[in-house]
C-alpha cells in the first residue's frame, strides 16, 4: 500500500524532473526572452528581412553545434569543427563553379571532405582508442593548415548562386535557412529513434555497460564522428553562402562557440545526456544575443563577455532545475 | 562421442567445460577448469575472490576468449567471439557489476540493442514499454515501471531488471553472478530459477551464500586459484568441507560472539544522533559508544541508505543533531565527516568508493596525503610504509598494492577501501553492507577487522543485508522501518527471527 504511494510520488518526481531537466526547454525559454527584448528594442525586429537574417546568421553555428552534439553525447570532444568549417569555406570561395551544378558539386565536395575527416577521427577514437581531444586536435590542425594552403588570406568569391539562393526565401517567405534547420531537426528526431540513436546515449553513459547490453560501441562512436564531420562541412557550406567570401580563419571563432552552444542547449559534457535540437537553439541564442547587444548599442568588444555570462546562466539553470527535480522532497 | 552421451541415463549436458585456461600477461586467471552442467540443472560455482569466477563468467559470456581448453554448449563447440554471439548461441548473463544504463528507461534497457519498431521502422516507446511490461510480468516483477529511468531505481530493483534482462533472452544457459547480492528478498529469484530449470534451462549460479546455494543447487564446483578443485554433491558435503576446499585450509570456527562485556561507562557517546532528519530519514536518535558495534537492520529502502549517507557526509541532514564526542557537527561534504573522525564505506564502491584508474596504494593513502607531505611533496617511502601496514591490517597481500585497483577482485577492492578508512584515523566506522558480493574468506577478514577496531576503542555502525552477519557481529541491533528506528534487539533477544519481525513492522511490543 505504502509502496504504491511511494511509487506514485516517485513517478511524479520523475516527470517533473524530465520536464525541468529538459535542457531544450530551458534554452527555448532563454531564446524567447531574448527575442522579446530584441523585439522591444528594435522596431523592425519582426519584419521579414530581420527574421530571414536571424535564421541565416544562426544556421552555420547551429549546424556545427548539431554535429558536435553527436560526439559529445558519446562522451567525446571534437575540435576538428574549426578546421572543417574553414576548409569547406575556402574551397567554396575558390574552386567551385557557379549555377546549380556548381552548388551541388561544391556540396558533394565539402561533405565528402567532412565525412573523410570525421572517419579519420572516428577510426582514431573508436578503433585505435586514442583520446578524442588529442585526435581531433590533430585533425583540426591538419585541416586548418590545408585551408591556409588553399587560400592564404581572406578573399575569393563564393558563387552567386550559392550566396543568393541559400540565403533567400522560398514558398512566399519561408527562409531557406529555416527549411534546412527544420530538415536537420526532423532528421535528428528520426535518428534519435533508431537503434543507433539510442545507442549514442548508452555509449555516452557507460561504454562498458553498453557493450554488455550488446551494443556495437565502436561502430556507434565511429558513425557519430563521421556524421559530425558532415555537419561541420554543411556548416562551412552555409557560412560561405552567408559571407559570400572565403576566410582561412573562419573556423577559429566556431571552435569555442560550438561548445558553448552545445552546453547552453543542455547537453552534458560527461556524455549520455542532451539533445541536438537544444544545441541548435543554443547556437541561435548566441547569435540573437549578438544582435540584441548590437541593437542596444553595446560595442561588439563586449559580445564575448555577454555570451559567456549567458552560457553560465544556462548551465546554472539546468543544474539547479535538475537538483530541484531530483530532490525527493518538494 | 555425442551418441555415447545420449546413451547414458543422465540428462544431456548443457555445458561441458574441459581444461579451460586463461592468463592476462603474467597473471594467470584460470589454470585449468573442468566441470559440466546438465540440462535443467542449477549448478553452483563456488570460490574465493580471485579464484577465477569472474574470468570464467566472461569466457562463457563471450567477452574474453580462453587461451586453451574447450567449451561445448549442448554438444556443440562453443567459442563465442562476442557477447552477442554467446547470446545468439543461447547463453545470457546477469552481471554482478550491473550492466544497465542509468540514463535510459527500464524498457529501453530491456530491449537493447534493438528497439521495438513501429510501423515506419522507427523505435516506438509505446511498443518498447509494452514489450518490457510483458517481460517484467513473466518474471513476476510488475512493480517495476517500464517507463522509469534506471537511475531512479533502487539497487535491488536494478538487480532485478538485470536478471529480467538475462532471462528475457530465453537462454539455454543462464549465468547468474552474485544475483542476490543486493536483493533483500531473494525468494523472488529462487522462483524464477526453479521455473527455468523445470523447463530445461541450465543455470550456473554464482553466490557466496551457501544457504542459498544449498536451497537451489544439487551440485557445485569449487574453484581455487583458477583451478576447479572438485564438483561435489552438495547434499553430501558439509559447509566446513566446502569452505576448506575453497580456501585450502581448515575453517576455524572463529565466530564466537564477544558481546555483553562492553563497558558502557558514563563517558559521552562517541556518536550521538538526536532526531536526525533528511531525505528518507524521519527522525533518528541513537547513541554509539566507544568499543561498541551497533547493527542496523531493515528491509530494502527503509531509509537506512539515506541515514548512512548523511553520516558519511554524502547527503545533507535537514534537521536534528549529530554529535561526535558530545560535540555537535555538521557535514557539508564527506571531507567534513572524515575530519570529525567518521570513516564511511559506501554501498556502491565502484562509483562512490574507489578510483579505478589509480593504484591500490594511491587509493589507500588518499586521505592521509596531507600527513605524508615533506617540503610540500609526498614522501613516497613513508606512503609505501603506511600503506603496507594498513594493507596488512586487512589481510590484503602486498603484491596487489602496486597494481591498479581496477585489476583487483571485488573483495580485495573492498579490503583496500576499508584499509583506507582505517588509515584515515577514523574513530567511528560507518559501514554500509561492507560484505556485499564478497566471498567467505574476505568476509571473515572483514569481521576480524571490525571486531578488532571495536576492541581497540573504536565504534562501528554497521548495516548489512545479511541478518546472520548482524547477529554474529553486533553488540546490539537497531531496526529501521520507514525512516525511523522502530526497535532494538540486544543480548539474548538478538536473533534473526526477532530482527525479521521488527523489520517488517511487527512485534514492536515483543
The CATH topology of chain A is what?
ABC transporter involved in vitamin B12 uptake, BtuC
Identify the CATH class of chain A: Mainly Alpha
**DSSP summary: helix tally of chain A:** 14
How many discrete domains of chain A? 1
Give the helix proportion of chain B (percent range). 25-40%
What would you call the shape of chain B?
globular
Oligomer: heterodimer
CATH architecture label of chain A: Orthogonal Bundle
Cα-to-Cα separation, first versus last residue of chain A: 21 Å
Q: What CATH architecture label of the largest domain in chain B applies?
A: 3-Layer(aba) Sandwich
Give the neighbour order of strands across the main sheet of chain B.
6-7-8-3-9-10
Number of strands of chain A: 2
Shape of chain A: globular
- Biggest sheet layout of chain B: 6 strands, mixed
Rounded Rg of chain B: 24 Å
CATH class of the largest domain in chain B: Alpha Beta
Strand content of chain B: 15-25%
**Order of strands in the sheet with most strands of chain A:** 1-2
Task: Give an overview in words.
The complex is a heterodimer of chains A (330) and B (510). By secondary structure, chain A is mainly alpha-helical. Chain A has one domain: ABC transporter involved in vitamin B12 uptake, BtuC (Orthogonal Bundle). Chain A has helices spanning 2-20, 23-41, 48-73, 81-94, 99-127, 132-150, 160-165, 176-192, 195-205, 207-212, 217-243, 252-264, 276-295, 303-326; strands at 169-170, 174-175. Chain A has a two-stranded antiparallel sheet. In chain A, strand 1 (169-170) and strand 2 form a beta hairpin. The longest helix of chain A is centred in the middle third of the chain and has 29 residues, at 99-127. Chain B folds into 4 domains: 1-90 and 171-251, 3-Layer(aba) Sandwich (Rossmann fold); 98-170, no CATH class; 252-341 and 426-510, Rossmann fold, CATH 3.40.50.300; 357-425, no CATH class. Chain B is 33% helix and 25% strand. Chain B is built from 18 helices and 22 strands. Chain B has helices at residues 2-7, 53-60, 83-89, 106-111, 125-138, 155-168, 187-198, 210-216, 239-247, 304-311, 334-339, 349-353, 360-365, 380-393, 410-423, 440-455, 467-473, 496-503; strands spanning 13-24, 27-38, 42-47, 68-73, 76-77, 91-94, 173-177, 202-206, 219-224, 227-233, 271-278, 281-288, 293-297, 319-324, 327-329, 342-345, 373-374, 377-378, 428-432, 459-463, 476-481, 484-490. Chain B has a 6-stranded mixed β-sheet with strand order 6-7-8-3-9-10, with helices on both faces. Chain B has a 6-stranded mixed β-sheet with strand order 16-19-20-13-21-22, with helices on both faces. In chain B, helix 14 (380-393) packs across helix 15 and helix 15 (410-423) runs parallel beside helix 16 (440-455). Chain B is globular, with a radius of gyration of 24 Å. The chains are: A mainly alpha (330), B alpha/beta (510).
Amino acid at each position: 500500500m505504502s509502496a504504491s504511494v511511494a511509487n506514485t510520488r516517485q513517478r511524479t518526481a520523475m516527470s517533473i524532473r524530465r520536464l525541468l531537466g529538459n535542457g531544450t526547454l530551458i534554452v527555448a525559454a532563454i531564446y524567447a526572452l531574448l527575442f522579446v527584448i530584441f523585439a522591444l528594442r528594435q522596431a523592425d525586429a519582426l519584419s521579414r528581412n530581420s527574421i530571414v537574417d536571424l535564421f541565416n546568421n544562426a544556421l552555420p553555428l547551429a549546424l556545427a553545434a548539431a554535429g558536435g552534439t553527436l560526439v559529445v553525447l558519446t562522451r567525446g570532444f571534437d575540435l576538428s569543427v574549426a578546421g572543417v568549417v574553414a576548409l569547406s569555406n575556402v574551397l567554396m570561395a575558390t574552386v567551385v563553379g557557379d549555377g546549380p551544378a556548381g552548388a551541388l558539386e561544391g556540396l558533394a565536395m565539402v561533405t565528402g571532405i567532412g565525412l573523410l575527416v570525421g572517419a579519420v577521427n572516428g577510426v582514431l577514437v573508436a578503433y585505435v582508442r586514442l583520446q578524442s581531444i588529442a585526435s581531433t586536435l590533430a585533425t583540426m590542425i591538419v585541416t586548418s593548415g590545408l585551408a591556409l594552403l588553399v587560400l592564404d588570406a581572406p578573399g575569393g568569391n563564393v558563387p552567386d548562386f550559392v550566396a543568393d539562393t541559400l540565403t533567400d526565401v522560398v514558398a512566399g517567405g519561408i527562409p531557406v535557412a529555416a527549411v534546412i534547420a527544420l530538415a536537420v531537426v526532423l532528421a535528428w528526431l528520426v535518428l534519435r529513434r533508431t537503434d543507433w540513436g539510442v545507442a549514442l546515449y548508452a555509449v555516452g553513459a557507460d561504454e562498458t555497460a553498453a557493450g554488455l547490453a550488446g551494443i556495437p560501441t565502436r561502430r556507434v562512436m565511429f558513425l557519430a564522428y563521421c556524421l559530425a564531420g558532415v555537419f561541420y562541412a554543411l556548416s562551412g557550406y552555409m557560412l560561405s553562402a552567408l559571407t559570400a567570401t572565403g576566410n582561412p580563419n573562419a573556423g577559429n571563432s566556431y571552435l569555442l562557440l560550438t561548445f558553448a552552444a552545445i552546453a547552453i542547449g543542455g547537453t552534458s559534457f560527461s556524455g549520455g545526456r542532451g539533445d541536438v535540437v537544444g544545441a541548435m537553439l543554443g547556437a541561435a541564442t548566441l547569435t540573437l544575443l549578438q544582435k540584441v547587444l548590437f541593437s542596444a548599442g553595446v560595442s561588439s568588444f563586449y559580445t564575448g563577455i555577454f555570451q559567456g555570462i549567458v552560457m553560465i546562466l544556462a548551465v546554472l539553470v539546468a543544474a539547479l532545475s535538475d537538483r530541484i527535480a531530483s530532490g525527493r522532497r518538494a | 562421442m555425442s551418441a555415447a552421451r545420449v546413451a547414458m541415463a543422465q540428462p544431456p549436458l548443457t555445458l561441458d567445460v574441459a581444461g579451460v585456461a586463461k592468463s592476462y600477461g603474467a597473471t594467470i586467471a584460470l589454470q585449468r577448469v573442468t566441470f559440466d552442467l546438465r540440462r535443467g540443472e542449477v549448478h553452483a560455482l563456488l570460490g574465493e575472490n580471485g579464484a577465477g569466477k569472474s574470468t570464467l563468467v566472461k569466457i562463457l559470456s563471450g567477452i574474453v576468449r580462453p587461451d586453451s581448453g574447450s567449451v561445448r554448449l549442448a554438444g556443440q563447440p562453443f567459442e563465442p567471439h562476442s557477447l552477442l554471439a554467446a547470446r545468439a548461441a543461447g547463453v545470457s548473463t546477469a552481471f554482478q557489476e550491473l550492466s544497465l544504463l542509468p540514463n535510459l528507461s527500464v524498457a529501453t534497457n530491456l530491449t537493447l540493442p534493438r528497439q521495438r519498431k513501429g510501423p515506419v521502422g522507427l523505435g516506438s516507446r509505446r511498443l518498447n514499454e509494452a514489450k518490457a511490461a510483458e517481460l517484467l510480468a513473466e518474471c513476476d516483477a510488475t512493480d517495476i515501471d517500464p517507463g522509469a529511468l534506471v537511475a531512479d531505481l533502487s539497487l535491488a530493483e536494478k538487480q532485478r531488471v538485470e536478471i529480467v534482462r538475462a532471462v528475457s533472452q530465453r537462454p539455454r544457459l543462464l549465468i547468474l553472478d552474485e544475483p542476490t547480492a543486493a536483493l533483500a528478498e531473494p525468494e523472488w529469484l529462487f522462483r524464477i530459477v526453479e521455473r527455468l530449470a523445470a523447463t530445461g534451462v541450465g543455470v550456473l549460479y554464482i553466490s557466496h551464500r551457501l544457504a542459498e546455494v544449498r536451497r537451489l543447487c544439487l551440485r557445485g564446483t569449487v574453484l581455487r586459484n583458477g583451478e576447479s578443485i572438485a564438483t561435489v554433491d552438495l547434499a553430501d558435503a558439509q559447509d566446513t568441507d566446502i569452505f576448506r576446499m575453497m580456501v585450502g585450509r581448515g575453517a576455524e570456527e572463529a565466530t564466537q560472539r564477544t558481546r555483553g562485556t562492553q563497558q558502557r561507562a558514563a563517558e559521552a557517546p562517541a556518536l550521538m544522533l538526536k532526531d536526525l532528519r533528511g531525505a528518507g530519514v524521519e527522525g533518528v536518535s541513537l547513541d554509539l559508544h566507544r568499543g561498541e558495534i551497533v547493527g542496523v537492520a531493515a528491509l530494502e529502502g527503509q531509509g537506512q541508505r539515506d541515514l548512512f549517507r548523511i553520516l558519511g557526509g554524502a547527503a545533507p541532514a535537514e534537521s536534528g543533531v549529530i554529535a561526535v564526542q558530545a560535540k555537535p557537527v555538521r557535514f557539508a561534504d564527506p571531507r567534513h565527516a572524515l575530519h570529525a573522525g567518521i570513516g564511511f564505506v559506501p554501498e556502491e564502491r565502484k562509483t562512490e568508493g574507489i578510483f579505478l584508474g589509480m593504484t591500490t596504494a594511491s587509493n589507500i593513502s588518499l586521505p592521509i596525503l596531507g600527513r605524508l607531505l615533506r617540503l610540500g611533496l609526498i614522501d613516497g617511502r613513508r606512503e609505501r610504509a603506511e600503506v603496507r601496514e594498513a594493507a596488512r591490517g586487512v589481510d590484503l597481500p602486498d603484491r596487489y598494492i602496486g597494481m591498479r585497483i581496477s585489476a583487483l577482485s571485488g573483495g580485495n577492492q573492498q579490503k583496500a577501501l576499508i584499509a583506507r578508512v582505517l588509515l584515515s584515523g577514523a574513530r567511528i566506522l560507518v559501514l554500509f553492507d561492507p560484505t556485499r558480493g564478497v566471498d567467505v574468506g574476505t568476509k571473515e577478514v572483514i569481521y576480524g577487522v571490525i571486531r578488532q577496531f571495536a576492541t581497540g576503542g573504536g565504534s562501528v555502525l554497521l548495516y548489512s543485508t545479511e541478518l546472520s552477519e548482524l547477529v554474529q557481529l553486533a553488540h546490539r541491533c537497531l531496526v529501521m522501518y520507514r525512516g525511523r528506528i522502530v526497535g532494538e534487539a540486544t543480548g539474548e533477544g538478538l536473533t534473526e527471527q526477532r530482527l525479521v519481525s521488527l523489520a517488517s513492522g511487527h512485534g514492536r511490543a515483543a
